[in-house]
Amino acid sequence: MKVSHHGISRLRFGQFEVDLLEGKLFHRGAPVRIENQPFQILVALLERPGEIVEREELRKRLWPSGTYVDFDEGVNTAISKLRYALHDSAETPVFVETVPRRGYKFLAPISDVTTIEAAPANVSPVAGLAPAEPEPKTTKRWFWSRGTAAVAVACVVAAASTYLWIVPRLEWLLRQNRLRQLTVVPLTTLPGHVRSPTFSPDGSQIAFTWHDDTYAPNLDLYAKVIGNDKPERVTRWPDGFYALWAAWSPDGKNIAICRAVKGSGTAIVLISPLGGTERKVSSMNCTVRYDSALSWSADGKKLAFLHHPADSPSADEIRLYVLSIDSMEEVPIKTDCKVVSAPTFSPRGDYLAYGCFENMSAVSIYLHNLSNGGDTQLLRGLDGVGGLAWSSDGRRIVFSTGIFGGELWEVPLDSPNRREKLPFGHDVEELTVSFTGHRLAFRQMRTNTNIWRLDLIHPKEPVQKVVVSSREQHAPSYSPDGAQIAFESNRSGSQEVWISDADGSNAVQLSSFGITFTGSPRWSPDGKLVAFDSRAGGEANVYIVDTRGSVPKKLSLDMHGNSEPSWSHDGNWIYFLNGTDSGHPAIWKVPSGGGHGHPIQLTTNTSWWPVESPDGQYVYFSRDNYIWRVSTDGTKEQQVQGMPRMAYWEAWTPFGTGIYFVANANGKDEIDYFDLNTKQVRPLHVMDKPAPNFMGALSVSSDGRWLLFAQGDEFSSDLMMVENWQ
Questions:
Q1: Burial class (CB within 10 angstroms; exposed 0-12, middle 13-18, buried 19+) of 252
Q2: Beta strands in 287-438 (DSSP E)
Q3: Which end of the chain is more exposed for a tag (fewer CB within 10 A), N or C?
Q4: What is the rounded CA–CA span in Å between residue 649 and residue 696?
Q5: Exposed/middle/buried for 650, CB within 10 Å: 0-12, 13-18, 19+?
Q6: Alpha helix (H) ranges present in 86-196?
Q7: CA angle 162, 168, 171 (to 5 degrees)
Q8: Which CATH number do you get for residue 65?
Q9: Domain end point (choices 405, 437, 469)
Q10: CA atoms in the 13 A half-sphere facing the CB of 229
Q11: What confidence tens digit (pLDDT) does each residue in 538-559 have?
């Protein structure tokens, strides 16, 4: 049943308010940024709370007849943006529930806040009638005594409501005003990479790892006094020793380091800030995943760290542990999270905050109560978390979004799922806070990755840079005629799929999902379509877009979590990966038209990056950085004999009678060719600079003349600092 809000200017649900006249959304009085289409869907749902609003109704409401768009994808995108604005989740909805194959339902109770057509007190509610005659005097005194009480109660209620509404808004405005007055200054200006910042207890010094060469044979720890430009070297390790993460102890006497030794795993060691002999306190393999791996409790008696258990059924599982410095006991912290990141003790030591990766684009922040062992979800639905830190009063958590550098945000503990963007910080990874020194420091990345072209006929000739911007571009794919290149890039601010001419000119954006994980484009054999994957909406799906002009359309499958698509040579099949988020990725194939038929599973064990062989008989894939193959009917799975281990799981492509791949020779990345007939490896090109974290495949033009690859032309970072941080 449709609920009429005629005469109502504001509606309230939970901690949100909707201004129907202004078309605005507020959270605890603070405006929430929301686009028109998601807002229109919200209004449609509010009109019929508790009832199913069909997708077809939303289509008619959002797009008039004669509009040519992918309606399904448009509605999905608008719903995703609405949930993002409401801090809601498709898996555990509070406000918007998906009704499979039908539509959506609004779950929360709604109340009217204010009206805009209330009648004046001296006007009769019946049109055309004059006010009634005055009552007798005695009755009037009784009426006004009751009326005065009613007015008084109403005033109290109104005052309380106004207080509850205006105080959080004033707090938010004051907080934003104070943050805008803070300035960000460089803390380091060293060449190369600086990472893993950690303040001394009083905030007067900062320790960090640093190397000025991407191919450095080791990674040492340094420390410097704030205001002094020259860092002092703390560790002097031989080649093959790497400081992965550091954390300064609360008493200032030690710095804990998660240290890796090439060929021997990792361990946790303590060392004086002045250097000297180190002391191993844990032989468990500490793990650095996405960001910080160590955190001290306020009393200095416990150290939180991450660990990948050897008996874990999933290669990606990362668990949370706490080490007792006195007893050396390593205690696992029970969570329902398979992949934990960035453990951080609160200033009072009563909570341990951590990030939980449900998948690469659906991340939550949890608080673990150290007294009762309970976990509370503070924030959900994030597109990655790069770092966590507490405010000095323990009332807020500041974090960076994304995995490879993002913006700075904070969330109050008393307002779960209400995050506010800070007015400073970009390309941020790794945070640290000095509670007593009132300082915030973070690592700011500078990354420039471009697509280069190698002449396979004359491999000794200088390589040429073809797809270029000041940001990042990966995963090149030649069109069948060699006239165009498909690639992924964040040049528009988010990771999207693009195409350009073969020389990199005339770049055109094909997707606009506005998230971190969209890419892996592959051309169809006829050169008209591009298949790619995206985690829009928090789940990986395969999309197909017509490069001549259309909206990307999701490949219809009765399976969830699909990625890394590629085409068969006849164009009839699409190979793809399923099971990445569960830790058991396997290769499947489905007719390129999609549909609700039966996809065919080709592999059962861990498999990555499927590509059909040139003769169409096999599907090649990578496993543990080796190349394997399986027949297109799912039989005869076997490792490609004689081919060496690759440097990267996705940096390869079959062509002709061999496979081009990236190896690591003498500490540098090198493009080689493996001949499937002779089993011989032919080196072709030593890359001037290292490969990025994700190259996204190699691509060879159909005539065999050119090879495209992504190269990291700049990898550097600085530490930035904010004074007077509270």
A1: middle
A2: 294-296, 302-307, 319-324, 330-332, 340-345, 351-359, 362-369, 375-382, 385-390, 396-401, 408-412, 420-421, 428-434
A3: N
A4: 9
A5: buried
A6: 137-180
A7: 125
A8: 1.10.10.10
A9: 437
A10: 3
A11: 788 999 999 988 889 998 888 8
What was the pLDDT predicted at 290?
Answer: 59
Q: Please indicate, yes or no, whether residues 276 and 304 belong to a single structural domain of this protein.
A: no
Residues 649 and 566 in one domain: yes
d(CA 52, CA 96): 10
Q: Which run of H or of E encompasses 203?
A: none
Tokens 């604005």, residue located: 85
Q: Please report how many Cα atoms fall inside a 13 Å half-sphere around the Cα of residue 648, on the Cβ side.
A: 25
628 with 693, same domain: the answer is: yes
Which of 112-116, 212-216, 502-506 has the weakest average pLDDT?
112-116
Asked if residue 323 belongs to a domain, the reply is: yes
Query: Three-state SS for 15?
Result: coil
Indicate whether 261 and 329 sit together in one domain.
no
Report the amino acid identity of residue 369.
Answer: N
Residue 409 amino acid letter: W
Rounded CA separation 185/722 (Å): 7
Give the structural domain span for 701: 447-716
Residues 416, 395: Cα–Cα separation, whole Å: 11
Q: How many residues does the chain have?
A: 726
Query: pLDDT tens for residues 505-523?
Result: 999 999 988 878 899 999 9
Q: Are 283 and 267 in contact (CB under 8 A)?
A: yes
List pLDDT tens digits, range 346-382.
999 899 999 998 776 678 999 999 989 999 999 888 8
Considering the entire predicted model, what is its pTM?
0.72
Q: Residue 345: how many CB atoms within 10 A of its CB?
A: 24
- Is position 517 within any domain? yes
Q: Is residue 399 part of a domain?
A: yes
At 288 the pLDDT is 67
Which DSSP symbol is given to 136? Answer: P
Q: What CATH number is associated with residue 206?
A: 2.40.128.660
Buried b (16+ CB within 10 A) or exposed e, 26-44: bbbbbebebeebbbbbbeb
End-to-end CA distance of the chain: 49
For the chain, helix, strand, coil in percent to 5 are 10, 45, 45
- How far apart CA 668 and CA 43 sit, in angstroms, is 57
What Å distances lie between residue 560 and 100, 541, 557, 594, 620, CA to CA?
Answer: 13, 7, 8, 13, 23
DSSP string, 468-498: --SSBEEEEEE-TTSSEEEEEE-TTSS-EEE
CA distance 334 to 372: 11
Among residues 234, 253, 283, which one ends one of the domains? Answer: 283
Among candidate residues 541, 497, 548, 540, the one with its CA nearest the CA of residue 522: 497
3-state secondary structure of 274: coil
Strands 428-434 and 439-455: antiparallel
Number of structural domains (the chain) is: 4
Buried b (16+ CB within 10 A) or exposed e, 364-390: bbbbbebeeeebeebbbbbbbbbbbbb
The total of other beta-carbon atoms located within 10 Å of residue 629's CB is 19
Q: Which of 235, 310, 319 is nearest to 273 (CA)?
A: 235
Residue 129, classed as helix, strand or coil, is coil
Does residue 300 come out as left (phi exceeding 0), alpha (psi in the -120 to 50 range) or beta?
left
**Is position 3 within any domain?**
no
Residue 107 and residue 97 in contact, taking contact as beta carbons nearer than 8 Å: yes
